């Protein structure tokens, strides 16, 4: 009977070792699958990024001409406005200087309107 119990215990120990091996293999399988999934996701991200960069470059190249044309038009408009302001300045600077000098030099002394006459 002792031999039978010993053999039963031995069988249980072997079953436990086999179960541990199976669990270890399952863990390794899971870790490998996670690594594979990360690698695959990285590849998909790179492919998507490349596709979007290519799409952006094609969009940029198709609209680059419009940008340079718009910049040229804005530069011309700015130059015209600047020339108009310069012409206006040159035309009116003498009159403005004369008005300023007249205001500064020709002072009319007057009592302030809030000053009241004090009767003694």
**How many DSSP E strands?**
0
Largest sheet: none
What is the overall shape? elongated
* Helicity range: over 70%
Structural category? mainly alpha
Number of helices: 1
Order of helices and strands: H
Low-confidence stretches: none
Cα-to-Cα separation, first versus last residue: 142 Å
Strand content: under 5%
Mean pLDDT: 89
Task: Describe the oligomeric state of these chains in a short phrase.
Answer: single chain
Rg to the nearest angstrom?
A: 47 Å
InterPro entries: V-ATPase_G
Organism: Piloderma croceum (strain F 1598)
Protein name: V-type proton ATPase subunit G
Keywords: Coiled coil, Hydrogen ion transport, Ion transport, Transport
Describe the SSE topology.
Layout: H1 2-105
Which features characterize this protein?
single chain, 120 residues
Structure overview:
InterPro entries: V-ATPase_G. Keywords: Coiled coil, Hydrogen ion transport, Ion transport, Transport. Belongs to the V-ATPase G subunit family. Pfam families: V-ATPase_G. This is V-type proton ATPase subunit G. The termini are far apart. By secondary structure, the protein is mainly α. The protein has a domain at 7-67. It is built from one helix and no strands.
């Amino acid at each position: 009977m002792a031999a039978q119990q010993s053999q039963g215990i031995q069988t249980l120990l072997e079953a436990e070792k086999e179960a541990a091996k199976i669990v270890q293999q399952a863990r390794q399988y899971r870790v490998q699958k996670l690594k594979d999934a990360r690698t695959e996701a990285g590849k998909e991200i790179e492919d998507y990024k490349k596709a979007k960069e290519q799409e952006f470059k094609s969009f940029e190249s198709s609209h680059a001409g419009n940008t340079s044309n718009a910049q040229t038009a804005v530069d011309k408009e700015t130059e015209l406005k600047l020339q108009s302001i310069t012409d206006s300045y040159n035309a009116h600077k003498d009159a403005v200087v004369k008005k300023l000098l007249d205001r500064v030099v020709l002072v009319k002394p007057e009592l302030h309107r809030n000053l009241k006459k004090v009767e003694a």
